[in-house]
Amino acid sequence: MAAFRHSAAHVTILPKCYASVVTMCAKSIFLPVVALIMGTSALSAEITFIRPGEIPPNPLEASDMSALDLDAIYRGIDLLGRIRSRASRGMIGTAVMNDFAKDDIDGTPGITVNDRDLAARVEISQARARAAQPWAANDLDNDGIVTRDELLVVARTKTEATARRQRQTRSIELTDEQREALVLDYVATFLGRDLDGDNTVTYAEAIASVDEERILTRIRTEGGALKPIWDVNDDGVINEVEVRLSIERLLDLFDSNGDNVVNNDEVQVSRKALFKARARVGDPSRGKRIKCTLPEVPRTAEVAVLQGNAGSAVTNLKFKIPNDPVVRMTEVFVPKGETDIYLIASLRSPTVLRMMGPGVERVKAVVGVAAQVALAAGNAELANTACHRGFLGIRVVDPGGVAKEFGRALGRDDLRAVVADRLGRVDLGTFTNDPDIRLANDALPVMTGDGQIVIDRFLSFDPGGLQMLDPSRIQSTVQVIARDVPPLEIGLIVLASEGMVEFVAPPPGFLTREIPKGVKREVPKSEANDSIVWQKTPDGGTRATFPLTVVVRRAIELPAGLTTERGVRLIVPDGVPKPRGAKNWRLNGG
Predict the structure, then answer these.
(1) Which of 74, 276, 483, 496 has a 20 to 30 Å separation from 551 between CA atoms?
(2) pTM of the model
(3) What secondary structure letter does DSSP report for 423?
């Protein structure tokens, strides 16, 4: 009798049959075969017939992968992950090129960081739309603000609709107390988006949960349909020719029997062979690697890691990168010493590092692995690279997380790190950080009256102060220019000095913020700041109410980085153009 082998799954069925039970034997063979064919037809499985006593064919042997480098190994692993079942080489190549076309969206041949930035903007826009949808459904008068009264109306409507459905399906009548509880729960849940505590939700508050920087970083580092690892010549552009050639070379290895088809058996043996090749080559990231450029660090050199959100001071600089972010600054003190230092900066916001101290020349290289990093002073080599997501400064709550990951990648266990949400003055001798100190050369103006209110507010967010830096003396991997108007509240002071805006005494209670310890507060007594309230908090800090209202007198561009979350209210009188950059602002008419 026949034996059956399901070649795609390496299953061999060898029933024993005797002449006296031919009928039973036929059934025992026929039914499993039918079941096997019916159950696997969707996978296009192959069934091979062999005679009793024959030895099944030898299992497939993988092609030699030893000549592949680590990048090619990862391209091979990615390509195998795209093969779901038996497929021809032409089908596989077409699917990959379709993904190439999907990612090449800026009209310029090849996939570059510009394409990924555009893809990120699309994803961010979609995330905003999803976050804003329930907000728009509650904005009954379409004025851009969802109030508590509007929420009560919507909640009661929804509650009554729920009560009607329950009564129709279950004959259950909600009590008045239950209705009111549902209404208040709806209102309280939605007001959880109210960041400034004024019982209203603006569009900016509705979309505040959308982490734009994280989306942008993820797509830049991990890519879209086609991962950055397909940049074969590592020139920053994934072009069609290199993708096609790479696919052909890999499929030559995967299609071990040369029938122009890659089946499940060939996928399995090829994947095992690639993993073995990766182990032989040595993968410092232990399988997590996507496309990460690591510094070449001598064993005798020290490696220090700065991990955080941003610098504590604000600069007048502008980096030519998407979204026009505010550029901040951190001071790095380097003591005397004999060993060279390599610095890895994992920061979520663009930051200038001012190298200072008697040991500045010890710092030989600085590598930015997340947001853009630039250097003021020192002669270190500078590199910025879109590195592996695990190395980014996203998990700032994980002390030393970036240092541990880079330590594994570099094969070292002696990396030291400074980890903080805000990096002010960092001492590489003691590995300490002072986040609340005014940095050297602070250029904040000396103000009185209303102006001092603005300065005091600015320092509550950025205690390092303001740095006016010369772009020509900044070492950067992207173009750096000086802003026409400084960012944030300092820009408002400049606009006020030119008669473009003016500050007025606003109603109290507009914004409450934690004030960092150590910030000097000199608030002159005047009618303009009577509404400021200082309160001690249980942990020894100070909480202050910072109302700040600005009347716009002429057409202006809003200073970079200034948002309603910083507690600024704009009043735009009739006949004055809406400020540029105030797209999502809550504006009061005059």
Answers:
(1) 483
(2) 0.53
(3) E
